[in-house]
Amino acid sequence: MASKYTYSFFRVSKTNEVESSAQKYRDLRLKALKTSPDSFSSTYEIESAFTDAEWIDRLTLPDRELFICAATPVTDDPSSTDGIEWIGQVTLRGPSSKADFELPVEAGQPPQRSDEEEERWQMLSLFTLSEYRGHGLGSKLCQEAINYLRSYQSVPRQVQVRLIVKAGNDVTVELYRRLGFIHAGKSTLVEALIANGDEHLVPKDLTSTKYSDRKGLIMISRISRS
């Protein structure tokens, strides 16, 4: 059966049509937080209170690059833009210095190369709305982000992409393995929050074992620029 949609993948501009992009991103993000709360460290209650200016600020952060999958209904008019919906997202955070990217020795992460030898990015917030799953869109979104890292500049020649997956999320782990990521250690929840730029979500009371247990699977991929 022919698909009712065509899909496109792109990096969101921080300068063109920012207000419109921020509204679309807000709609996608809030729907994702509401329908799949366990997929994110933040909550619908927190982000639904953001102002329009705050959504624009999030979209234009200098250390973030947002990539989107958009679904376009198949119609008789190929030039029509009616009904286009943002339905998937993934974010890159970086580039990070060697010092900022380091984790405690207990995490088991391989030693970092010098800043001159390697650029470092954290991949986070991969999500596709449930009604659009089963078409490999998450994998294509990640590939769009990786292609950007390969091409947006030429040096340094090596790029490390890291992500942290919740324990037991076997489907997502397999997706990343198909993209070339390998197991490279385990992180605590606090380390994962900090790596993803969510330091504000780290609670003051860290007595719960969920913050100290190493249950987050660290995965890395090293890519080369031509």
Automatic annotation (TrEMBL):
Upper taxonomic lineage: Eukaryota, Fungi, Dikarya, Ascomycota, Pezizomycotina
Q: Which GO terms describe its molecular function?
A: acyltransferase activity, transferring groups other than amino-acyl groups
Q: Which residues form the N-acetyltransferase domain?
A: 23-207
Which organism does this record belong to?
Penicillium coprophilum
Q: Which PROSITE patterns match?
A: GNAT (PS51186)
Q: Which InterPro entries match?
A: Acyl_CoA_acyltransferase, GNAT_dom, YpeA/RimI_acetyltransf
Record's keyword terms, sorted: Acyltransferase, Transferase
Which protein is depicted?
Answer: N-acetyltransferase domain-containing protein
Which superkingdom is the protein from? Answer: Eukaryota
